[in-house]
């Protein structure tokens, strides 16, 4: 508990798949894929990773010019890389923005998260691919965040930090047969008494059942008689009126 933190200091797929980082077995196949993956960060990416922001959940129509217009408010930008599909050239909905100064980076990280750009609420975090040890991207079963509908929830990041685990003390319960022998005997005798009570109750219920049937049948017969008498009285009144 002393080393616990809401944000992961290094990436572990098994812990990232747990809401509090205490799971010991993977609960979905994506975690298995991430644990077996041997991912190496892209060596073709240039720039200072400690001055780079990761911007996700962008509108597919958002351009580099729009990102520069918005994020230049926080400081001087050195480079913007909007990730696009190699075949179609369409945006994939996320980008990397490198600042010249750390002060601008921290300000954008603090204020630009959940900002609305082109009718989309964006997500802003530090770059993790080259800064977080053991990082596995989401396409290999890793990553952080996620939606409930997808079934691939990952914790330990800014979007979904770890929840503090609850440590329950190991207390012995006498109701499960633990404790002294006298208590166990007392509990067994008590169960026998309950069984005899249930049997007596069932027998009494069987005895009372025919009596209730008689009462119900008697009440029904009385109701039928009353209804017949009312009908006959109504006919006599009609005959008198005629």
From TrEMBL:
> Keyword set for this entry?
Nucleus, RNA-binding
* Membrane spanning stretches: none
Give the matching Gene3D superfamilies: 3.30.70.330
Q: Which residue spans adopt a coiled-coil conformation according to this UniProt entry? A: none
- Residue ranges of the RRM domain? 51-129
Residue ranges of the region described as Disordered: 146-242
Cellular component aspect of the GO annotation: precatalytic spliceosome; U12-type spliceosomal complex
Q: Where in the cell is it found?
A: Nucleus
Please name the Pfam families in this protein's record: RRM_1
**Could you tell me where the Basic and acidic residues compositional bias lies?**
146-162, 180-242
Q: What is its main location?
A: nucleus
Q: Which GO terms describe its biological process?
A: mRNA splicing, via spliceosome
Q: Could you state a single Gene Ontology molecular function term?
A: snRNA binding
Keyword NADP set for record: no
> Known InterPro entries for this protein?
Nucleotide-bd_a/b_plait_sf (IPR012677), RBD_domain_sf (IPR035979), RRM_dom (IPR000504), snRNP35_RRM (IPR034146), U1_U11-U12_snRNP_70-35kDa (IPR051183)
- Protein known as: U11/U12 small nuclear ribonucleoprotein 35 kDa protein
- Originating species: Bucco capensis
